[in-house]
# Entry
Amino acid sequence: MTETSERAANEYSVPLPLPSYRLIILLAWPVLAQQGLNLVIGFSDRYLAGNYADLMQESQHGGDRQAALQAAQTTANYLAWFISSFSVLISAGSTALVARFTGARDHDLAERVTHQSLLLSVVLGGLVTLAALAGGLRWLIGILHLRDEAAVFANDYLEPLFALLVFQVLETAGIACLIGAGDTRTGLWVSAGVAVVNLPLAWGLCLGRGPFPHLGFVGISLGTALSHCMGAGVVLFLLTRGRSGLRLHWMLLWPRLDLIWRLLRISVPAGLDSLSLVVGQFWFLSIINDLGNEASSAHGIAIHWEALGYLSGGAFGTAATALVGQNLGAGRPGEASHSGWLAFRLGCGVMTFMGVVFFILAPWMFQLFCPNESQRPIIDLGVPVLRLVAFAMPGLASAIVFSCALRGAGDTRVPVLFTWTGFFVVRLPLAYYLALPEVDLGPLGVVTGCNLGLLGAWWAMLADLWVRGVFFMHRFARGPWQKQRV
# Structure
């Protein structure tokens, strides 16, 4: 490795002698800011969808079209989450291996893992794009029970995102490798650039402002897709310059089956865990879509606000991933365990505070996206569920931070069972029973449900989050991950 790369590695690798709380904050705050920028983009897109008719002075379309647009965006956002979960097939192993090799001071192998990560991004991203554009999107939207005008809106919205998917996956994989090297700041600056580009593009292409054509609803997602193309280009450029000790050499972009196998051995179970979440979320969304466009719209807005807590936990989870991996690589399992617990305490504190905010400010949070009187039913449905999820924050913090800590150790197989239990044993059966007036069990007959609507579905989600939180905490506390080989 060159002298420049060595200096970069020393600069960005986590300085283990610092007090652990300072290390966690040092790693978490850039990710928290990065997630905040992503959330701003999501809020901007949601605002555009909720206010599109007013912004275009087309209020004659009434609340039905607004509800259809917002319901379409709710379903589209769930499908866009598939991209994030799909990226885990690459990013989980990339972060874990780069962190382990960085902790062991084997910077050559850390660089080689980075190259294999980028190669997998191109191959897997391209395959998903082909599948989506060949009819996969329409099929998914259909099984999610979105119908009529809302289904058309959702398909049009998603096509640009999946057409340019490979760039978003490349961006995510590159940032994951940098996080493994202890550099969470680069991801922040890349996300800042993506946000700066995304906002004017989305508004301009949606509304036809300035030099941009008027593309309507689809312009929102096209702006997002194009901004991620820029983000991927920046990440690749920084890696060619040797960012954080990871220098991209084009001659090394050749498959190494041994490293690909080690990547996938970690990433496939983690990806299966994330994709299981997606399948469960899709199934859960199909129940909510059966409740109508207003329930779907309220659900989507509440989920966007709930992301303030979720993404806060994700920032501390990222810190746990890097510190657990690096400390295990350096032969310090005790410090790895201490880092995981401290990351949970800090993350749980922040998420609990966000829960208090949800409970107090829920009506005003909904009014931001539902300014018209015709959207009042959405507010009435959404405020109670946003207040309810405030009580799930400690359980959700445990599920997020400890699952990330286990991924940092390479322990990704057993946690899949926790996800399956939470979703398919707890959330989905309860959602059917609590949300619907009756549940058809086929040959077993029909069971009378509680008919609580959206609120019943969110009670089921609350139970799932606490069950998974307890399982992940127990797994981390037992400690078999400390002997995990990667």
About this structure: The longest strand covers residues 438-440.
